[in-house]
Amino acid sequence: MSKRTSLKSWKLLESHAQTIKYCHIKQLFDDNPNRFKDFSLNLNEFLFDFSKNLLNEQILKDLFSLARECELEGWREKMFKGHRINTTEDRSVLHVALRDRANEAIFLEGVNLTSQINTAINQIKKFSDKVRTGNWKGYSGKPIKDIVNIGVGGSNLGPQMVTEALKQYSDNKLNIHYVSNVDGTQIADVLTPLDPSQTLFIVSSKTFSTVETMTNAKTAMNWLTSASFNQSAISKHFIAVSSNKKNACEFGIEEENIFDMWDWVGGRFSLWSAIGLPIALDLGFEKFIELLQGAHEMDLHFRNSPLEENAPVIMALISLWNCTFLGSQSQAILPYDQPLHKLTAYLQQAEMESNGKSVNWFGEEIDYPTVPSIWGEIGINGQHAFYQYLHQSNNIVPADFIGSVKSVTSVQGHHDTLMANFFAQTEALMNGVDEKQVRTDLMAKGRTKEYINKVAPHKVHKGNRPTNTILLNQITPKSLGSLIALYEHKIFCHGIFLQICSFDQWGVELGKGLANNILSEIKDDKPITSHDSSTRELINHYKLVSKQG
Ligand code: F6P
After folding, report:
1. What is the DSSP string of 270-286?
2. Helix ranges restricted to H, 137-259
3. Which of 48, 427, 506, 544 is buried most deeply by CB count within 10 Å?
4. What does each C-alpha distance from 121 to 92, 103, 174, 272, 289 come to in angstroms?
5. pLDDT tens digits, 431-452
6. Which of 353, 377, 415, 488 is labelled catalytic?
7. Spatial distance between the Cα atoms of 439 and 446, rounded to a whole number of angstroms
8. Residue 213 beta carbon below 6 angstroms from any ligand 1 atom
9. Domains, the chain, ranges and CATH?
10. What's the pLDDT band for 531 if we cut at 50, 70, 90?
């Protein structure tokens, strides 16, 4: 298998990077009046504009050549056909099967997954209908009012991001709450105002061994049983979503209340499975299916479109170009729709837990920059927090701007202002403003020569900051499903280009293991003598002060 850096297109791109860095994006627009048309895609649910990037036709052509030299299309087919491309865990990667509503049989090593998936989807429908119609009764015979999802990472971020994004589509039959942090403050804040007799807990954990989740679930169980005064209440107020049925049963959850997960669905790609139960409970089963349909539409686009018209492929190539070839070490995700306020946190796990690695498929140290760190905030809030940095720091941060033509709220007179900022920011980041223009503007305002000489250099914006724009028609369950799948497939492609295994997460094991050992040291009365002096003395200080009450 050829090393990436030895590929013909890789070498070409390295030389392009050496020359293009002396160019300005606005020059590329001057050179090609049709640039927007040549560097954008208009898909069913959104317009994808990638023209404000520092790349020209030849570079884009060589990026597509690189995708072909990396045999992306072959890898794509391997994923869709269930090959065990998660090589270090020897698993398939088939979250796409969860939203393939066409019901064509998908076989994985002789097993027809479609029937398993249909059973799971029907279980989601039956359960969510029963709870939403008030036919699921608690221990006192009352219907359920509040749902508490206990889970972390992919067992929390996906469902929470979606229910927050689609809040306007909820009939609010149920109140949905999330507990993910093991800090007792969070579960206390959630449970205090709730009525145990009308609260249902979903314990979401693929492994059913995540200490944070188990700790929260135990506290929730004690909260319930101390109110209901009997253990039998558990069967009426606890369900589990897990691939580890044994642990869930040992924890005390009835077998018929356990929703299956499969090892071919990664945690951070699992909201389409029963991990997405909070979505079906909050919005109703039909809207949950619309979400899946949107994702499936993107799956078809990704699988069937030529690379040159393929949004996930282009997004991944641009991220590769900006980070690995042009050297940007971070990428901002800047949604302007308030409903998408949890999207960045979701994508942080999706992107950084998938590709935040430095060893390739063969266990060799990777000697080129891999993925950027992902960060961001709702756009308008960001404009008043870190856009100074985006515009005038000497670190160039490529950014994805995500907005909608139509707002989901009925409040009038706000959306045009929001979108004027949305369009202005990518224009300003690209064009900047040079000192000549700054001086002209200050003179026009009647400023003195002395003032202008002092201030002008501080008002220059170099511009040349690359951005992608994703302009949704409107946030709907379907368009959100497409948007999430767009990023899932972008992450897959990026991993192929980098020769990274995107579907394991060995980097979370060390911290977990150390924490378990330190927890037992904390519980022991004696001062500890292990670890380095910093860790040791911090722990001893904690033990000493916490004893002082
Ligand atoms: O962050 C590590 C991780 O394993 C994620 O991949 C996963 O989504 C999360 O922890 C929770 O794991 P589980 O669903 O098994 O509790």
Report:
1. -TTTGGGHHHHHHH-HH
2. 157-165, 184-191, 211-228, 234-237, 245-251
3. 48
4. 20, 12, 20, 9, 9
5. 999 999 999 999 999 999 999 9
6. 353
7. 11
8. yes
9. 4-69+305-431+465-498 (3.40.50.10490), 95-289 (3.40.50.10490), 506-548 (1.10.1390)
10. very high
